[in-house]
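Data deposition worksheet. Section B asks for the primary sequence of the deposited chain exactly as it was used as input, without tags or linkers unless they were present during the calculation. Section C holds the resulting structure in token form. Section D is free text for depositor observations; keep each observation to a single sentence. Incomplete worksheets are returned to the depositor.
Section A, Depositor: J.P.
Section B:
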Amino acid sequence: MVPRPLPYPNTHPNKGTQGANTLPGHFFAAYPAQNYEILRRIYWKRRGYFMAVNIPALPEVERISSSVTRILGGNPSKFTLQGTNTYLLGRGRDRILVDTAQGTEEWREGLYRVLRGEAEAGKGGEVKVTTCILTHWHHDHVMGVPDVRGHNAEVKVYKHLANRYDPDQTLQKEEILDIEDGQRFSVGSEVDGDLFEVETLHTPGHAKDHMCLLITKSPDPEEVGCIFTADNVLGHGTAVFENLAHYVSSLKLMKSRAGENRRAFPGHGAVINDARQKLDEYITHRQMREDEAMNVLCYGTTVALGKAPLKTAEGFPQSTPPAENDAGKELVLGKEWESMEMVKVIYRMYPENLWGPAEGGLLQVLHKLQGDGKVEKTEDGKWKASEATMKDVIAEAGVSRSSTPSKL
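Section C:
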């Protein structure tokens, strides 16, 4: 990782270092000069530069807690950050392994080296992984299963829905046991003073079979209440999901179960010092995305009448003030919108090449809001606020539905 004096490249997306329009799109052309710094940072972050340069380097192997050792997967990328985090749990001869990364040689050698080192330090015989828990089916978490079996052929490997849910068929040749919500796994014993136990939490959203793990017993009281978040919450940035309604419900469940002032151990990225605080941030961010979609459907802008602009995850205003030629235009309440029309309002500060992916995320939000009864989809595929929602909006605004002068 090469250190740089600036967190983002010191160029504008439509200008080279000499100030010429050397990059396509002329992204900044429609915005005043005072917005350039905000736009530059958003642009480069969304293009992956932030992830490539500014995430901290992590050791290949690190004991991050008295009973928890993190072993990086050896598969760094802009999607996996520093690589997939796998965790070796416990203190005695039998250990629990959380996830197996992507089956790289670096990860296999790292795991074996840690197990040998633990055996030498303990002087109590060979240390083995006897239980392996896969948090979900994605290939960057499950492809190291053969390497685990190579070290201990008797290891029991668990995943929610077992082999019944394996879209990539990565695990078809493996015997995978099912996990139930609330199931507990332990190693060690109270007699020896090394009992370590985790409880599984079914937390769909990122994936249908996604599981988090909560530490329920440990010789170290500071570990009890810590949570392994897998890919629902990351050490840096925000996570992707396949079902937003399930995802938000899972975040709330995780927050309710995590201990106060306890850490979170994510599937990717650095340790999170305060699990509940980070979960609050994730929940707030998702609520902001819902609010801005509702504001567009109700008011035609991400800013509700008489309220302050929403903030992006980067802490910048989500909406820029309307252009001067928008002044005096009538604002139509409750119109019908195509999803891409909404993207052009919500993401007006972003380059057009990001609008396609942004539409996918917006559709997830709209489907959740539809399930909540707040929006409706018309016969011609457009979106609009529900009648009940618009009644509340009109009552709050104190105007007729047809139009009102823009106050933005």
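Section D:
The CA atoms of residues 42 and 401 lie 35 Å apart.
The first helix runs from residue 36 to 46.
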